[in-house]
Every structure is written in structure tokens, then in C-alpha cells.
Amino acid sequence: MSRLLTCLVNERLVCAWYVTCPDTPVVTSFLLVSSPRCCYPPLTNAKMWSPGSFVFQLRHRPIVEIAPIAYRTNVHHVLMLDPEDLGVWVWRTSTVDLDNGKWTGTVITSPLELLAMATEWNGLSNDAVLTIRRELESSLENQIYAFAHRDDMPKLTLESSAIEWEQSIIEGHATHPMHRARHAEPPLPSLLPDTELRHIMLRFVAVPSHLMDTCGDYHALLMPLFEAAKSIVSDPHHIDDSGSAGHVESLLNNVDLASETIVPVHPLQLPAIRAIFPFVRELQFEAPAEAQASLRTLSPLALAESGLDIKLPLGIKTSSALRTVSTWSAFLGPRLTPLLPHVLSSIDETAGGSVHQQQPILLVAGEPASTIVRGHEMAKYLACIVRDNPQALCNRQEAAPAGSERQRTVVAAALTERNADGTSVVCAQWGLDTVDKKKKFLRSYVRLLFAAFLPPVLTHGFAFEAHQQNTLVRVDLDTGRVCGFVVRDYGGIMVHMDTFRQAMGCEVPMLVGNSTTAQSLDEVYDVAYHTLVQCQIHRLVRALDLHYSGGGWAVVREELVRAVPAESMLYVAWMRSRSVKLKSFVAMKLGGMYRDYVYTSVPNLLHYQDEQNPSQAAYV
Ligand SMILES: *[C@@H]1O[C@H](CO)[C@@H](O)[C@H](O)[C@H]1NC(C)=O
What we know:
The protein has 17 helices and 28 strands. It is an alpha+beta fold. The protein folds into two domains: about 1-120, no CATH class; about 185-240 and about 245-575, Transferase(Phosphotransferase), domain 1. Helix 1 (about 1-10) runs parallel beside helix 2 (about 110-120) and helix 12 (about 435-460) runs parallel beside helix 15. The longest helix has 26 residues, at about 435-460.
């Protein structure tokens, strides 16, 4: 409910006010939420106020407009809400007494009630609302299950494996209301909360090669996986009449590599593939794999030695979109990979604060090969992208023998989670028990983050989609220090081609209809701002409890000035405006759009002062 309300408020689909009642025996404050039509004109001066509304308990003050609304000095319009601002209780009100901070009404506990009211207020009753409702229900059901079963999870330390960290995420995306939806689209059967998504058995199909677009050394790179696949038919003679007795059945004996392409398939995706692609031949073989945080990128055990992961389509909607693999990203990966070393050469290896940097600050998980169905409108349902495994990439860089890693890669999203007892994961792992220690950690993290990701933006007009699930933090296991990052996934990069061409002498090859080229440099700065500031730094500042005091944002501002000259276009773009764009998850869903984004305008957190400052509202 807190995530849904956050989106509704920030996307202006409801109106929200911060109400304080200083004259009551105990100063009370709460959040009043009503129809967006109540915003303009604002609340009247009537003492009792009674259109349909909700009251939300607050733990902290959201970002509000400086001036109170007309008629009332104790009521401020809310400009930006975060789930962390909210308490536990919510009421559907009958009457509200704004002077005395009292209301009558009933406690509600389901986000579906809030959604129903919000859609009524906005006059919405279309299919999109039903879709959101279903996905919200799915998210709710799966989140309840995840919380109830979190005790089954191992307690993690920095020594824990990278894949354990990937699979440790319980709370997930901080503001997406459908973040934990596991909504399977037909022809996939619907999923239950206990459906196994972490430890899976890959399946395989053979497809006539002329029907596939394949790029890179695809078969060669996946050969160890094909060789390791085990027959799932108890008597192998059933599927291969020519097999002689005692011969261990091999997947490779069942395909003709001269004319067929082998594609690994997520087991849950098999029904969709059978239904959509009559020309594929199912191979009765399987191989174990571990799923990463994204669910669709998998680490097959058989590829551990070669250090490769595979990204496979999964017709399941979680957060914004179906987790399939687009033609654009299958095309882009192997073509962009060889260009990246040049892009990364713009990074100053001493800028992160360490002059003895053993390794580059930023490593990029390459995508050396891919295959996808050619020219088919459902192509995104059958594809495979081969990608460097981040931990293996790290080990290769430092030439560490297997089993003796000196660095651990931890997916950034796992660090801003909370442990079962409510404590912050990042604080617990690094023993950050004082404000000074927290600020010091934040400073070194943000310094490295800017040193890693801003130079390609400045010199090549190139931004990675470095949000918390695509970024892995590299921790030195001897010293416990954060020493750099790995970034993966090119699906959401943003490139300004003129700038790139000037720096490189060539373009990034992309297919027509791509959404990864920028019309202007501002679009590149926007992607960098969204992924680094709104997604990564915001969550880290809050996980360190440095948001409401403003101390965290002061550190971020200092580090930004340190990283980019104040006169640079990027600095100006990030700092010039008191408000910035924010992706509108709910509005986007209402419009049924997945690739084209809808934005709302919210305060620029880089200007945040502190909770107590009445003029904090994004205006310094
Ligand atoms: C996609 O990429 C190419 C660069 O290869 C660019 O010229 C083109 O305009 C891009 N956008 C679309 C929508 O096709």
C-alpha cells in the first residue's frame, strides 16, 4: 500500500496534504489523501471536511510545498512522498477535523481499496485498471509469501556467494507497487507463490538455424552446457533408436549443428514456446541453473568454469513489463561489447580515491553472443543472450584461481534491503553504527559511483542503465572496502550518437525502432540521473538513515562537485532545476505502455535540505 500510495501521490493521480496540528496536547501530523480534483481549488476553510479521503499515519515529513495552502497555515501540499515516510495505519475517513487533527472512519488494510478509490476519483474503469488490479494482487500475494518464508534464507555475509546475494532480495524495488508480481501471461500456466524460481532445471529446444538470428560464437560458448545436459527420459532408447546399449545419451547426438540451433529454455517458458513456435523441436534434456535477481538471467552450473550467464525470455510480468528478451537487445549485445573498452578508457582510475587501484573501477559484463527468432512478431519469447558472469569477470581480472576470490560482487539492490529484524543490511555488513561511519561509507561509495559512471556520459554521451539490479558492488574481501562496480544489461542504455561518433569515430549499431538513442544530451543526463540518483543513491542514503537529517544529500552534493566541473553541461543539467522527471509506473500501466515512458515532475533530491527545514521543499 505504501508503494502504491507513493506512486499515486508522485504521479498526481491523487492529491495529498501534510497536516500538522500544533495546538493539540501532542503535536500530531498526518497525511490526508483525496481526489486530484480537490487540489485545485485547494481545501476550503470549512472546519469539518468530508469528501471521500484517506488518512495515512506518518513517521516522517514528506517533501512539501513551502507555502501552506490558502486558508490554512497547518496544511501543506505534498510534492513528493516515499514509502519510508509512512507509518503502519491507514483509515478510510468519513469526516476530518483539520484544526484538531481528528477524524472518523475505518481502518483499511488492502491496497486494492486504495486503488479502487483512486481509479474512481480519476474516472477510470477500463481494462488497464483490471490489469493493474490483478498485478497488484499478485505482487501482494508473493510479497506476503516472501516475508513469511524469509527465515528459510541463509544469513549472508560478504563471504557468501554472489548468487546467494542475488537470491536474497525480499523487499525488492522500493517504490514500484507491482514489483513482486509474478503474473504469468497465457499460454503460460499461472504461478503459485511457492513456484520455484531460484533453483531451476533448464530445458532445451532445437530450431532450424535459418529461422534464427545468431550473433557471435554462440554454440561454442554454450558447448559446456550442452555437453552437461542430462536426459530426462528414463530409458534413453525411447528417444534415440540408434543409441547403443550402455551409451550415455548426449544432447549433442540429438541435433544437427550444421542446420539446427540449440536454445536453452526456462522451464516455465516451455508451454509458451510449444504454443507459439510449431517449428521448434523439444529436446528431452535438462541442466541445473541458479536464477539471479532478475529471474530471467541464469547462471548454469555447467558454465561456472567458463564464467558465463544466459539471459532467457520469461513470459511473466513483474514490475513494469514481461520479462522477455527483445530483438533490440539481442542485436545490440554482441555488437556493443567490443566497443566498450574504448568507452571505459575515459574513466580516470585514480578518481575513485585509490591510487593503488588493482583493477579498473568499472567492469562491464560483456554479451559476446546471442540468438533470437528471426522476423517473428513473438520473437521475444524465444531467445538467448550469453553474458559474462560478474563474479567470474572479477576473478578473471585479478587472475584469482577458482575458490580463492579476493573480491565479492554483491548486487547493489541487496545492500539496501532490511534484515528480518528490521536492521539495514548495509549498516549490518559494514558495522556502520555511528553517523560519522555512515557518512564516510556513503562518501567513498558515491565517489566511486560517480568516478565509474559519469566519465562515459561526459566523453561519449553514453549512459549505462546502472540501477540497483544492473549494478554489482565489488568488495575487497581482505579489507572489506568497496573497490568498484560491475554493470550489466544493455537493454536500457542511452547513447547520444553524435557525441559517441565524435569520441569513437563510429556509431553503436542498433536496430530501427530502438529506444536507446538520445535526441539530445539531456536524455543521456536524465538516464544517468534516474539510475544513479533516484534509484541507487536515494535508496542508499535512506538505508544509511542519512535522508531526513539531510546529511547524506550534503555528502552527495560535495561529491558531485568533486566529480564534474560546476560549469559542465551534466552538472548544470542535474542541478539547474528544482524539479526533475520521474518515471510514472502507474500512469504508464494505465496507458498500457511498456517501452514508451510517461513522466511526472518531482522535487530534485540533489537539493534536499532536511526534514525540519520548512522551506526544504526542493528549493534551497
Ligand atoms: C536507432 O538507432 C539508430 C542508430 O543505429 C538511429 O539512427 C535511429 O534513429 C535509432 N532510433 C530509431 C527509433 O530507430
